[in-house]
Each structure stands twice: as structure tokens, then as C-alpha cells.
User: What shape does this take?
Amino acid sequence: MTTLLYRGHDYVQHKEAVAKQPVKLTYRHSTYTKRVEQSAPSHTSLTYRGRKYQK
Assistant: This one.
């Protein structure tokens, strides 16, 4: 069992750790920007403390 420390107190972990294969994440700039453009409306109106802003 693994002993954990949280805010100065020791805890015993009752679950066994699961060995998973790591997942490699990739960043694809064109895919990200395309999805952002599709999901966001072109003229978003925001209101902050009674004043309207355009995003």
C-alpha cells in the first residue's frame, strides 16, 4: 500500500495503481484554429458592468 501525505496528514491508499500506457498528445495548429472559428460566432456581444463590448 502507498502512504500519501496531504496537508501534513498521512493517508493509506487502498487502491492499487493501474499501469497505463502514456498517451502522446499532439498539437495541430490548423485543426485547432478551424474548430475555434467554427464554434465561435463572428460577432459576440459581451456585457461587463453595464457596458457592451464586441469580441
